[in-house]
Amino acid sequence: MRNETSSNQISLAYFFIFNPDYGQKEGKEAEKIFYYYPVDEKIEKQIRIAGFCAGMIKFTQTFKSNKPCEFVHTEKIRMIFNELGDNFWMVIGLNVPLSLDKVYENDLLSDQIYMSILKKIFNYYRLFNGNIGDSLRLIGIDKLKEKMKLFFDDYIDTKLNVRDSDILNTFNGLQFMSLDRNMYLKIQSLLNLLEEKLPLVHRVVVMHNDQVIWSGLEQEDISSIYQYLKELISKNIPGTPQSQLASKFLVDDSTKNLMNRLVNPSTSDNSESTIDQYDQEYFEFKKVYLDKPLPEQFYLIPYNLSKMTFFIFIPTSQTFKLSLLKEIDEILAPNLILFIKEISEQQLKRSSIFTDEKEIKYIYFNRLNLAQKSTLNKTKDLPKHLMALISQLSKDLESCIPSGEIFVKSGKDYWIACKKSDLREVYVVVCQKNANLTMIDEEVKQLCSTDFTNIFFME
After folding, report:
1. Among candidate residues 442, 444, 395, the one with its CA nearest the CA of residue 416
2. Which residues, in sequence order, are CB contacts of 117 under 8 Å at separation 6+?
3. Residue 368 has what pLDDT?
4. Which of 113, 124, 92, 125 minimizes the C-alpha distance to 15?
5. How far apart are CA 423 and CA 129, in angstroms?
6. What DSSP character marks residue 104?
7. How far is Cα 11 from Cα 2, in angstroms, rounded to an integer?
8. CA dihedral in degrees (141, 146, 147, 149; nearest 10)?
9. Which candidate, 81, 59, 71, places its Cα nearest to that of 15?
10. In what helix (H) or strand (E) does residue 114 lie, and over which residues does it extend?
11. pLDDT tens profile 421-457
12. Residue 230 and residue 210: Cα distance in Å, rounded?
């Protein structure tokens, strides 16, 4: 768990989901709380905090009814509210860090960063559980609360990291892989072949390690599921040659063992008929909810060969047999073996070109396609106050339409340069003694001309 309480660091005070429409009668106030962390918090305190949040939301609506309350700042606690729909609210409370001089450092907390984290948490929940209002109507209050507890207890314990969050959480972007045009067209042609021969396949995401090559999902959906896809790949890196069908699908060990027994010809002279005795429910493929263009639930079937993974989405309204997995393998495997070799050669050439390149700390983000590139090693490369400042500058840059730039000096040696062109942004951090604005401007121009040629900026 990465949310341990420490007075000199940002830490999680509480996290909860509530609906003010419930628990309005005296003595029933706890009914408005659908989930609360810490799980061992006294119910009286839970009711008091949830009641305060409900009061703040209702009070601020008298001033601006079309825009709900989102942030509440106190000396010791920062509260962020995210409206989820159907009058459900997600709230996170953060302990403001205390300096060595016993002063609360509110400037280290960025509202934008933690609102983005709240939205990311909800999108991740909705990815596997669907809309909260729909679940409430289908399974009732008690079952919904059980589902939330199961999900959020695990999420907070294993995934939520409020201490080291930064502007990259705000962008929630994707790492795209650079390929030459011919290679990209070959992959696109293979996708067309897959969808033509297997009409059940509705959408596909193609990745090389943790980088996206192709996404057939809408922007909002790929943004929500990207982190999960990366986790699937990292947890299932093949340690042995992928000669058997089961080893090419990123599924749990019990499912792999079952697939091996059914597919292995030595176990039956009539293996094909054995395969078709079992449908998709028997293998418990992961189900996910995608929102665009219309909300729908899909089976997620991850097919992996070496460093390339095809994430295949099939609607849960469809049925299929294990033989479909063999068909997927027969279509993809022969081509991927050639593609992987060719991509490795391209990577080798590219790395040899940039071996002597001067490293500069920067973050690039394209809001149009969510492409993100960064030379920062999360928060380890820069002081926390600089990361918080970059987040604030990102907010300021929104007013620059269609393009603009901001230069800021922080402390003695650090400069931050922010440039925007339409929906593309870059944030450059330079640590250089005795530098002036002209020197920093030249440094940024050189970076843009080398790393972002033909895609960035209007001068």
Report:
1. 444
2. 92, 160, 162, 165, 169
3. 86
4. 92
5. 32
6. B
7. 9
8. 120
9. 81
10. helix 111-129
11. 888 888 988 888 788 888 888 888 888 777 776 555 5
12. 5
Model confidence at 132: pLDDT above 70: yes
Quote the pTM value: 0.85
* Residues paired with residue 211 on neighbouring β-strands, in sequence order: 208
On the 0-12 / 13-18 / 19+ scale of CB atoms within 10 A, 142 is exposed
What residue type is 426 in one-letter code?
V
Q: Band of the pLDDT at 39, cuts 50, 70, 90?
A: very high
Contact 440, 430 (CB under 8 A): yes
Rounded Cα gap, residues 145 and 421, in angstroms: 45
∠ CA 216-371-220, nearest 5°, is 50
AA identity, residue 303: Y
What span, in angstroms and rounded, lies between the C-alpha atoms of 83 and 47? 19
Q: Phi first, then psi: give them for residue 391, nearest 5 degrees.
A: -60, -40
Structure-block tokens of residue 315 = 């609607």
- Pick left, alpha or beta for residue 381 (phi over 0 → left; psi -120 to 50 → alpha; otherwise beta): alpha
- How many residues are given for the chain? 459
Q: Which of 164, 183, 132, 162 is nearest to 22 (CA)?
A: 132
Enter the DSSP assignment of 358.
P
Q: Helix, strand, or coil here: 409?
A: strand
Neighbours of 321 (CB within 10 A): 16
CA atoms within 13 A on the CB side of 73: 9
Instruction: Indicate the Cα dihedral angle 330, 333, 336, 340, nearest 10°.
Output: 180
Q: For residues 386-415, b (16+ Cβ closer than 10 Å) or e, as one string?
A: bbbbbbbbbeebeeeeeeeebebeeeeebb
- Note whether 300 and 287 are within 8 A (CB): yes
> 49: Cβ–Cβ under 8 A, 6 or more apart, which residues?
14, 16, 93
Q: Which two tokens stand for residue 66?
A: 């079309």
